[in-house]
Structures are given as C-alpha cells and as structure tokens.
Amino acid sequence: xxxxxxxxxxxxxxxxxxxxxxxxxxxxxxxxxxxxxxxxxxxxxxxxxxxxxxxxxxxxxxxxxxxxxxxxxxxxxxxxxxxxxxxxxxxxxxxxxxxxxxxxxxxxxxxxxxxxxxxxxxxxxxxxxxxxxxxxxxxxxxxxxxxxxxxxxxxxxxxxxxxxxxxxxxxxxxxxxxxxxxxxxxxxxxxxxxxxxxxxxxxxxxxxxxxxxxxxxxxxxxxxxxxxxxxxxxxxxxxxxxxxxxxxxxxxxxxxxxxxxxxxxxxxxxxxxxxxxxxxxxxx
Amino acid sequence: xxxxxxxxxxxxxxxxxxxxxxxxxxxxxxxxxxxxxxxxxxxxxxxxxxxxxxxxxxxxxxxxxxxxxxxxxxxxxx
Lengths: 284, 78
Fold this sequence. Notes:
The complex is a heterodimer. In chain A, about 75% of the residues lie in helices and about 0% in strands. By secondary structure, chain A is mainly α. Chain A starts with 14 loop residues before the first helix and ends in a 6-residue tail after the last helix. By secondary structure, chain B is mainly α. Chain B has one domain. Chain B is built from three helices and no strands. Chain B has helices at about 1-5, 20-40, 45-75. In chain B, helix 2 runs antiparallel to helix 3 (about 45-75). The interface between A and B is medium-sized, with 35 and 30 residues.
C-alpha cells in the first residue's frame, strides 16, 4: 500500500490529492498562454502571461499571509510558479527597439536575474535548504571525483545536444568564422554563458527544482524540466523539441543526483553556443 | 518645426510598440495594490508588501531598461 508514498514529509498526505490538479492546471495555463503567443501574437501572449503572473503573485500573497507560522509549502510553490510567466513576459516584451537578437538575452536576463537574487534572500528556500543545490558542492558536501566526472559528462552532453538541435534546425553546417566575424566572439560567449545559461539554470535548477522537489523527488525534476523546455521551445521553435527536452531532463537529473550547479551551467552554455553557431537564426 | 517635432509627438509614443506597455501596466497594477494594502496597515499588510516588493522589483528593472533605451533612441535621433 505504501509503494507510491514517499518518506514522510510535511506534505506527504496532501501531495497527490491537492497538488496534482494544481500542477496540471498550471502547466495547461502555461501551454495555453504560449499557444496564444505563437498563434495570435506576442502582445496577446504577453498579456496572458502578465495576468498569470499577477494572479500567482496574489495567490502567493494570500497563502503567505494565511500561513502564520511561515512553515508552509503552498506559498513557496506559488511563488516559484510565478517566475516562469514573468520570464516569458520579459522574453516577449524585452526585445528593445533597434537591438539585435543577441542583446535580447541581456535585456530580459537582467530583470530576471535581479528577481532571482532578491528571491534567494527571502525565506523561500529556508525549508528546503538541504535540497538546494550549490555551485560546485556534491551531495556529500565535498568535491568528489565521481561527481566531477559526471558533471563534465553532463556538460559535454549539453554541447552534443546543442549540436543535434542545431543540425535538426538547419539541416547543415554553417561556417563558424562567418558568425564570429559578424558578432564579437567575447561578447557572444559571455552573453550565452552568463546571461542565458546562468540565469536560466539558477532559476530552474536553483530555485524551482528544490522547492518542487518537496512535493516529490521526481516531480521537481520533471516540472522544472518541462517549464525550462517550454521556454526554450517558444524561443527557438518546436523544430528542436527533442534535444531541448532531453537536455532539460538531463540537467534536472544531474542537479538531483549531485546537488551541484556547475555542470549544468556549463552544459547549458555549451548547448546555447553550439545551437547558435549551427543555427544563425537564433542570434542573427 | 520645434512645435511639430516636440509637441506633436513629444514622447514618440506612437512609435512605441504596444507590447512594451504590458509589463508597465503589470507594474502599475502591483504598485497600486501595494499602496492599497499599505494603507490597511498591520503585520499582515507588512508581510503582503514584502511579497509584492519581490514581484515588483524585476518589473521595475524592466521598466528602467525600456525607459533608458527609449531615451537613448530619442536623443540619438534628435
């Protein structure tokens, strides 16, 4: 009878009955908003995401006020659920006038990064501190070779999946030199690694996954991976769906396995770099 | 010329795509809500304001970026 029940947690008796519907409804709302953005237009899509964001902020506010002991998980889940709509809102609204696509990464990443840093200073992760990944620390608190080797492999797998996505999108290799002549190489690497890779991984693996893991170990991995994949799919299109979903799940598993972010940060950067080098339309 | 250039479209809002107003309106809604809650007072209001402050900050940064780029565009063209 206890086969599907995880070890007791404050939420063990509430997870399936109260949260499954909420998680499914939330993912459905995200998918519907993305569908509106793609089929109707970015303005309508951004409006849907803004409404979602405001609604989730208010639900977080209500849950936070009602949970007088501040030990509840509901407000934490609602708080992290509000971040992906904010990210998509910024991604849709922040390509400023006359700026290239490469600069868009910077312009939507900066407000999001500020929000994440402020969020990390709140009690959001205090109840899940043991699940919170660190930059390089392994599950055992050390820097073991096993974890390091695995993370190097994950990072290289990110590069391989980026190549697969780029080839799938473009169908052919393009000369790298041409791209680097038109786009400053240092700026190119910094933007992809720091702004795209670090911001998204800090958000999805550093904040969302540990909070969602309180519901269930693999719920955190799957939900954070699906949310990150959805943001990617909207950014580069459904043509690179398979590598993006595989990369998202791989990164989620890696953080769950080693509780360290360094491997997926590099892996995400290499994925973006490989995809951009092979598929010019992503950036230029 | 000055009247036509600066008074007819002083902020160039007609050239600003409507999508830029979505995060700004969201920011205004949250700021309005914050002030309404603040006027209520009490410990619950302070807790709610802390939640709203975290949500407001990224939108405020986005607003400042849009504003800075818009001003840059206006002064570059003038």
